[in-house]
Design brief:
The chain is mainly α. It is built from 4 helices and no strands. Keywords: Membrane, Transmembrane, Transmembrane helix.
Length: 93
């Protein structure tokens, strides 16, 4: 990862591309943090501290995951590589 960031920073538009990639991936960081917190405070049958009983913790995971999904849809971007991949897929069809 460090070598990739170093390589991209040395490209003409590298910093902007790396920051777009990080922005596009922040939903994943939030999702992992959310699931970690919910695993900690959730019910004991799933290894938690039982601060939230079973149906409530499941509902909270559902709502938080939906929020992370919407953040991912909002932060999505199309790069040159994405467009190139779409053109290759169209050739295969």
């Amino acid at each position: 990862m460090i070598f990739y960031i170093y390589y991209e920073f040395r490209q003409p538009a590298g910093k902007q591309k790396v920051f777009q990639s990080f922005k596009g991936a922040r939903w994943l960081v939030f999702e992992l943090l959310w699931l970690t917190i919910m695993s900690l405070i959730g019910s004991q049958q799933f290894g938690g501290n039982d601060w939230l009983p079973y149906p409530t913790d499941f509902g909270m995971v559902l709502v938080g995951s939906l929020g992370c999904y919407l953040l991912g849809v909002h932060d999505a971007y199309a790069s040159d590589e994405t467009e190139y991949g779409h053109s290759l897929n169209e050739k295969i069809k």
